[in-house]
Amino acid sequence: MAVLAYNEITAKKIINYNDEPYEVLSSWVFRKQKRKPVNQVKMRSLKTGSMAEATFHASDKAEEAEVETRPMTFIYHRGDEWIFCPVGKPGERIPVPSSAVGEAGRFLKGSEQVDTVWFDEQLIQVRVPVKAELKVVEAPPSTRGNTAQGGTKLVTLETGATVTTPLFIETGDVIRINTETGTYVERA
């Protein structure tokens, strides 16, 4: 296990905090008047999804969490349960709760390969690719009108998710979606 100094605790690092794995979302090293520097950190628990804030002083150290990344294949989802399997082993099905998949799961297609994060032999997070190419299955017809500020419409994708797109997107088009923000990027 690597030990991190207070200023090495930066965004995207996974640390042990209160005996749980936390992903650091943001960090800010600053000095208050004549005092020693501190690192103010915002982080999210990978087990529960709860947010936490902590302040690390110059004498503090944090332990980097021992997490393992494994490729998995998404099969399907039913209700609140998402079913994955190891790559090349469709018989070994692993149910995953919605909390581990997150909001980006609505952009997952069947048979898509994703990276999963494991801690103590337990799957705690599914990392969906940042950009996804999805087919539009339902789009209302474009209407004429005031488009000076840019017109938009709500379309349905092949995964069942709905996204706001420009008026020129039609049924059958393939578009790119940013899965972190859930927004339209461009036509593919």
Description of the molecule:
The chain is mainly beta and 188 residues long. Helices cover 2% and strands 55% of the residues. It has 1 helix and 16 strands. The protein has one helix at 98-101, and strands at 3-5, 14-17, 20-31, 37-45, 51-57, 61-64, 68-78, 81-86, 94-97, 112-119, 122-127, 131-138, 152-157, 162-166, 174-178, 183-187. The protein has a 6-stranded antiparallel β-sheet, with no helix packed on it. A 5-stranded antiparallel β-sheet has the order 9-8-7-10-11. Strands 14-13-12-15-16 form a 5-stranded antiparallel β-sheet, with no helix packed on it. The longest helix has 4 residues, at 98-101. The protein is flat and about 60 Å long. The chain starts with a strand and ends with a strand. The model has no long low-confidence stretch (mean pLDDT 88).
Quick structural gist:
By secondary structure, this protein is mostly beta strands. It contains 1 helix and 16 strands.
What's the assembly state of these chains? Answer: single chain
Radius of gyration: 21 Å
Distance between the termini: 43 Å
Tally of DSSP helical segments: 1
Which sequence of SSEs, written as H and E, runs from N to C? Answer: EEEEEEEEEHEEEEEEE
The overall average pLDDT, rounded, is 88
In which range does the helix fraction lie? Answer: under 10%
Please state how the strands of the largest beta sheet are arranged side by side: 1-6-2-3-4-5
Q: In one word, what is the shape?
A: flat
How much beta, percentage-wise?
over 45%
Instruction: List the uncertain runs.
Output: none
How many β strands by DSSP? Answer: 16
